[in-house]
Recover the amino acids of this structure.
């Protein structure tokens, strides 16, 4: 067997592929965070809870209404996105003129409340969510057994990330968004309804989180703590990529998934900290993040 | 105004009357109320403690028992500081449950410093009654040696002589891997690999893939609670068991299997000291427990809290005071234990509670007759075989005592 640094090549490729899958979740989640931060200037700490809600809505649709995975992939983001819209209108919209810290406190508090409510109702052992029959089974690759579902996760998240990037960079709506990020007052003067734009952007960012939640339900099992576990890593990803940079967060998400996968091969004890070590190093060299613009 | 004054006076007299002549006892239930171990301990342990106080009829026996609870979030520093605050400022006399071995070890030292009591139910590490034993601690429910003897021994006997460990990277994972390795090698098996997984871990597929590539016959899960559930679920999705490798959950609770369902967990072999469906007494208790706790059956950790509180209160009632923790624990060791959940037993001088352990196998879905009908009993392991012999644990309390006596016996 070919060896690389004392590790069989098969093991290495297997772990890289698994890392790419985790990277898919980091990418979608950090993309949503980056969009929300870029336009609303709100550090959305509720993102993890909204990701968890996406998974739970998928589970509820299946168990209470008999609606399967494919519809859930559409309905859960819509439902949770609507929840986000209500949240933005009722609460977040009141904080735009205040310091960042208030938004952080509000969204963090809401995340704790939402997680607590779900924990009270469903416990922490997690609920099973079966892989849809179309994607069950797997491919016996030369270096590992790849479940079809995990392959689908990578493809789906790549497509969603690229589509979001295209909308923001190449369409008129995206141009409004980018302009409103730069100078909201001027854009409003041109007759664009900026408050509506903000609400819809927040709703979309939240829907992305819920979409990731539905994707994650069959992989990680549906658990009230699933968002709290992943959100800290995702924040590190956003900081490394550069706050508010769309493409930066996508690339950083996938790359850090890969690096984490590699760490699991060479020094598993460090796999939960490696991303934070990288974050520290990046901040030392480029305080605005790898793809961020210096203010 | 005068009526209010009168009422206040009456109330004051009434409360004074009831307090008079009663020994105050404050019990703290310290465990994980929000993380990966919240379902195996959590609020259920508080419910169990409350039931023990009721069943003991504490008020009739002159004890005024109060129960407080807190979440240690599986963090040793937080657990130790809650314990200090409880002992120093809030008048807590004894702490119960404390899952998560790293936190248990921290609280164990605080209890010794303050001469209070720790009756541990949820933690695994056998060091609590081994090299680090203390005159203030009783380790009630299970420990890593008993788990290793039960599950490790049974798997090797079935032909599983090569092992790969996925180990939670903290005190419990290390202890259970160490003790299971001793059992495996002692019976002619060997360990081909091990990986330390971060604790808690929401994704262990990378480590399962490594375990598959190792070619070991048995994948030992040296973790617990939510981590074990994740590992078993992901192993099913990665096709591990179809590939002919067996999973061995080294610490599994009935709540884990209930969450996994027999469809996913069928055939899994595990060791527990308690299962709700063992006999009439456990069934009666579990039905009462379920009525007050959303229909959930008690786990072994929660059962251990019930039995531990019951026995603790017996010792306090006999002593007439809960102040001196060392004396209460000495009293607990003198009294034989007897409760509906673990039957008759003893507490050894090193603090180890001795009772039978059971080797269970998870039923097939076709055999299971209800959502909580999970196990069939493979074997009963008598208490004196299940736990580590006292002389081998290296507990200084035991060793030094006997050496001194021998020296004095010399002319």
């Amino acid at each position: 067997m070919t060896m690389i640094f004392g590790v069989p090549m098969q093991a290495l490729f297997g772990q890289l592929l698994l890392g790419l899958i985790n990277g898919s979740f980091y990418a979608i989640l950090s993309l949503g965070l980056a969009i929300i931060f870029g336009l609303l200037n709100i550090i959305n700490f509720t993102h993890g809870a909204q990701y968890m809600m996406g998974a739970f809505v998928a589970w509820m649709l299946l168990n209470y209404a008999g609606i399967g995975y494919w519809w859930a992939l559409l309905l859960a983001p819509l439902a949770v996105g609507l929840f986000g819209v209500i949240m933005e209108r009722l609460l977040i919209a009141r904080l735009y003129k205040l310091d960042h810290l208030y938004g952080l406190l509000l969204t963090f508090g809401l995340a704790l409340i939402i997680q607590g409510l779900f924990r009270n109702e469903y416990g922490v052992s997690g609920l099973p969510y079966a892989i849809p029959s179309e994607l069950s089974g797997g491919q016996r690759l030369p270096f590992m057994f790849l479940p079809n579902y995990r392959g689908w996760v990578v493809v789906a998240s790549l497509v969603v990330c690229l589509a979001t990037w295209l909308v923001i960079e190449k369409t008129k709506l995206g141009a409004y968004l980018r302009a409103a990020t730069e100078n909201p007052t001027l854009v409003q003067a041109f007759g664009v309804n900026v408050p509506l734009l903000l609400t819809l952007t927040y709703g979309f960012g939240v829907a992305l989180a819920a979409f990731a939640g539905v994707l994650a339900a069959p992989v990680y099992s549906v658990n009230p703590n699933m968002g709290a576990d992943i959100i800290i890593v995702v924040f590190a990803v956003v900081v490394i990529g550069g706050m508010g940079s769309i493409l930066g967060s996508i690339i950083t998400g996938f790359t850090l998934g890969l690096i984490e996968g590699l760490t699991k091969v060479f020094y598993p004890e460090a796999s939960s900290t490696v991303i934070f070590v990288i974050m520290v190093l990046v901040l030392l060299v480029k305080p605005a993040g790898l793809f961020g613009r210096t203010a | 105004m005068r009526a209010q004054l009168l009422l206040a006076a009456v109330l004051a007299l009434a409360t004074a009357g009831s307090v008079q002549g009663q020994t105050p006892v404050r019990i703290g239930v310290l465990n994980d109320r929000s993380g990966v171990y919240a379902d195996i301990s959590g609020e259920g342990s508080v419910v169990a403690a409350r039931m023990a106080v009721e069943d003991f009829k504490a008020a009739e026996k002159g004890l005024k028992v109060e129960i407080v609870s807190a979440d240690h979030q599986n963090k040793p520093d937080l657990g130790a500081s809650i314990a200090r605050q409880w002992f120093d400022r809030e008048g807590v006399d004894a702490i119960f449950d404390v899952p998560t071995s790293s936190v248990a070890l921290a609280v164990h030292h605080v209890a010794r410093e303050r001469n209070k009591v720790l009756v541990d139910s949820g933690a695994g590490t056998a060091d609590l009654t081994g090299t680090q034993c203390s005159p203030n601690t009783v380790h009630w429910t299970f420990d890593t040696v008993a788990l290793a003897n039960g599950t490790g021994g049974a798997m090797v006997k079935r032909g599983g002589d090569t092992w790969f460990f996925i180990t939670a990277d903290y005190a419990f994972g290390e202890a259970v891997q160490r003790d299971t390795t001793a059992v495996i090698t002692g019976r002619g098996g060997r360990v081909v690999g091990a990986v330390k997984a971060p604790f808690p871990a929401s994704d262990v597929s990378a480590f399962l893939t490594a375990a598959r590539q190792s070619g070991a016959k048995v994948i030992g899960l040296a973790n617990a609670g939510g981590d074990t559930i994740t590992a078993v679920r992901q192993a099913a999705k990665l096709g591990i068991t179809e590939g002919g490798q067996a999973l061995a959950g080294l610490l599994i609770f009935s709540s884990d299997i209930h969450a996994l369902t027999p469809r996913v967990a069928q055939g899994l072999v595990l060791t527990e000291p308690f299962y709700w469906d063992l006999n009439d007494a456990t069934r009666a208790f579990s039905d009462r427990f379920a009525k007050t706790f959303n229909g959930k059956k008690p786990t072994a950790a929660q059962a251990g809290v019930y039995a531990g509180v019951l026995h603790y209160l017996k010792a306090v009632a006999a002593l007439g005071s809960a102040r001196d923790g060392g004396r209460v624990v000495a009293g607990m060791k003198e009294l034989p234990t007897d409760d509906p959940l673990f039957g008759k037993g003893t507490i050894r001088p090193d603090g180890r509670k001795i009772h039978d352990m059971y080797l269970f196998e998870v039923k097939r879905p076709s055999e299971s007759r209800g959502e909580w009908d999970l196990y069939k009993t493979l074997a009963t392991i008598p208490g004196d075989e299940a736990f580590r012999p006292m002389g081998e644990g290296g507990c200084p309390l035991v060793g030094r005592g006997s050496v001194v006596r021998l020296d004095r016996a010399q002319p």
